[in-house]
Amino acid sequence: MPMSTPMPGQSGPSGSSALSGAAAVSTVGLRKSYGDKTVLDGIDLHIPAGSVFALLGPNGAGKTTAVKILSTLIRADGGQAQVAGHDVAASPDGVRAAIGVTGQFSAVDGLITGEENMLLMADLHHLPKQEGRRVAAELLERFDLTDAAKKPASTYSGGMKRRLDIAMTLVGSPRIIFLDEPTTGLDPRSRHNMWGIIRELVNDGVTVFLTTQYLDEADELADRIAVLNDGRIAAEGTADELKRLIPGGHIRLRFTDPAAYQTAAATLRDVTRDDDALALQIPSDGSQRELRSILDWLDSAGIEADELTVHTPDLDDVFFALTGGTDHTKETVR
User: Fold this and answer.
1) Which of 64, 255, 261, 331 is 20 to 30 A from 193 via CA?
2) pLDDT tens track for 17-30
3) What CATH architecture applies to the domain 17-243?
4) How far, in Å, CA of 94 to CA of 91, rounded?
């Protein structure tokens, strides 16, 4: 549900100044249970302002629960959380004035037009009528919905409804936006359009907290990624850092000169040979330091490889490795 609801008399985010020099979102030991089912089991997060943070995890991992707690929709059972400099439990109104939320399911009212949906949100934000119309028109144009503004939202495609959903979220000019699986069910073109919208938001200084099951989406958009499994953070880091956690990465050297190939094969340790292709495969974590070491060795030995490629596991490999078992060890990549 789009949410960025100031209290009466407030005209915009109250937490913007609090973000200066601090995390936009931070949690310590966040916990939540439903009966005997522990959904969040001590979550620590630190999300810088103006970045995209992606929370990955299988169904039931606790992603939506985390979003609901941070957006004040439900209360945590333990731990601490701050959003836009406001304590979620002690100052929920301050949090709500600074955030926007787009949930998994569209909150668009299909019985009214796109424009009427926007104006309804403007009224909820207590914007003066003329200001509300201006903001609605600007956002409808920004999200390429002007031509459809007078049509019932029920006639919109899935991608159009999602764009309208986010446009409604932006009426209150939130500085932090929670997007809970925003591209689920969208066709590839609509997904890419949504990615462009998210990038634009971040360019404007907005912090985006994204949950998704699309690993390429996190790889494409996120500055940092956390993998949530069985209520705990299994690993956290940049996409490249997470990929280096998983074995299987390697550097491949291919030669056209058989003599150079044989020399390299005889000298390098732990290589896998492909004599037909004159290629060597060297286990590697894909780091810059390791790549430089191999290049320096080739140079000092006077050996020239005709082709060098670095292969690292992708986020699919990371996801399945981290969520396929029951190991609850937290590993934070720095």
Assistant:
1) 64
2) 333 347 999 999 99
3) 3-Layer(aba) Sandwich (3.40)
4) 5
